[in-house]
Amino acid sequence: MTELAFYGLDAIHLKERDAILPGRLIVIEGTDSVGRSTQLNLLRPWLESSGYAVVNTEMTRSVLAGAGLKQAKAGHTLGPITLNLFYATDFVDRFESQILPALRAGFIVLTDRYIYSLMARAIVRGADPRWIRSIYGLALIPDAVFYLKIGIDDLIPRVLQRGGFDYWESGMDMRLGGDLFESFVNYQTLLLEQFELMTHEYGFQVIDASLPVDLLSEQLKQKVLPLLPHG
Amino acid sequence: METYGSHVYPGRLFVVEGVDGSGKSTQIALLRQWLISEGYAVFFSEWNSSPLVKKTTSKGKKKQLLTPTTFSLIHATDFADRTEHDIIPPLKAGAIVLADRYIYTAFARDVARSVDRQWVRELYQFAVKPTVAFYYRVPLEVSLSRILTGRNELKYYEAGLDLGLSHDPYESFKLFQERIVGEYESMIDEFGLTVMDATLPIPEQQRRMRKIIRPYLQGVRRMRGSAKETAWAGLAREMRPSHIDVSGRSGR
Fold first, then answer.
1. Whether residue B241 has pLDDT greater than 70
2. CA separation for the pair A47, A54 (Å, rounded)
3. A39–chain B nearest CA distance, Å
4. In CATH terms, is domain B12-219 a member of 3.40.50.300?
5. Interchain CB distance below 8 Å, B119 and A85
6. Which residue(s) pair with B196 in the sheet?
7. pLDDT confidence bin for B227, thresholds 50/70/90
8. Are B57 and A70 in contact, with CB atoms under 8 Å apart?
9. Distance CA A37, CA B123 (A)
10. Can you tell me the ipTM of this complex?
């Protein structure tokens, strides 16, 4: 990563502390069930066997807010603004306590989603785009963002294969359809639109997620290789 | 999503701000009693009181997991829950909402913790702009003596020990409060806070507060007299039931 760059304000004052960060920050983005964790599970051992120290992080797993967020989502009183800020708390906790220390120590940080999914979800839930962007503006610009792109028609069979439609992945909190399936289609379509809008703005490297797993993995490795130190 | 200053609701939102020991909670409690006795539907909301966020906040504080930024975010999450549940719905319904501490508390504390001034203002963009925001101004020596008298322990974050200003909790607390006061002072013009002299006698402060609020009560709907309100009304009124106007309008 070496140089520190931000989308918005350096609100954590990172530049005062670190002139450079020797690690690499690699983001895999994409909607629910698109195959992000499958790819990360292939990428990580490959990197490790090449001698790199790897750390991976994923959403809603922060020590601070992970449990509270899960509990809040299990109830029925969580409003959209509160949900967005709960996610932001979770993200910043992981950012400060996992991602930054690993980058300082020269690790390859693989993150299963980053601020983009969080912003897409927020905007779909009616958040002011300027507001949500300014909050996540404190995040470091990653070395690369790989966006696993899929169309809604290719997504549905994968979700069925995994056991069906989840309440939150279907955006049921917004009641976008008469049942889980309808709501899923409408919600995911809106999310995919947001990802599409962000692709150019945030410089996503688009990868066709409808490819077979091993082919996709090969592509990903080819794109990751030049990012690595002494790669 | 509505942002600060863009919400238009029939209700009224009055908030009190100031450092610990400024007496603001006493003033808003007195105001609440008075408004209820006048027949208004009054909702009261306190800082850091969301049941949804409580566990996360106390975990963070107990285990000292919080950085200035996550401290700021968890309080914003708490405030968002209160905004979505306790503040916006009653305001839409035409009620009076009273808040003991509001976004300015976050601005003062978080910036005192070195959170970026502009970032934290953006963070709270979803907040409803208050009808009147009172700032209870008190000299630091006065608030410190009010707070520290009879206290034997200051909590880690309360004392601002996370800032590393001093290892002594009392010294740290003083330095932290000093910064907070500085932030409040600079917000007076920025947000049009109504400055109240918190060194005056309590009844005099309350008289002034009611005088400022009265014009904003015009057009606010009052409830019809119910048993519940009667129970809430001032003792003097209960003693003289003939003074309770069933139409919901007071004689004054």
1. no
2. 7
3. 30
4. yes
5. no
6. B136
7. very low
8. no
9. 31
10. 0.91
Cβ of B70 under 8 Å from any chain A Cβ?
A: yes
For residue A132, give the chain B residue with the closest CA: B123
Q: Which CATH superfamily is domain A14-154+199-211 in?
A: P-loop containing nucleotide triphosphate hydrolases (3.40.50.300)
Residue B214 structure tokens: 């009265």
Whether residue A231 is predicted with pLDDT greater than 50 in this model: the reply is yes
**pTM of the entire predicted model:** 0.89
Q: Chain B: nearest CA to A19, how far in angstroms?
A: 19
Write the pLDDT tens digit of every residue in A61-86.
888 888 888 888 887 778 999 999 99
| B209-228 average pLDDT score | 84
With cut-offs at 50, 70 and 90, classify the pLDDT of residue B209: very high
HEC sequence for A147-176: EEECCHHHHHHHHHHCCCCCCCCCCHHHCC
Query: For the packed helices B103-112 and B169-191, what is the interaxial angle rounded to 10 degrees?
Result: 130
CB B155 within 8 A of CB B57: no
Q: Is the pLDDT of residue B224 over 80?
A: no
Write out residues 37-76 of A within 8 Å (CB-CB) of B.
Answer: 63-65, 67-69, 71-72, 75
Report the length, in residues, of chain A: 231
pLDDT tens track for B142-173: 988 888 887 778 888 888 898 889 999 889 99
| Contact flag A11-B125 (C-beta cutoff 8 Å) | no
Residues whose CB is less than 8 angstroms from the CB of residue A160 and which lie 6 or more positions away in sequence, other chains included = none
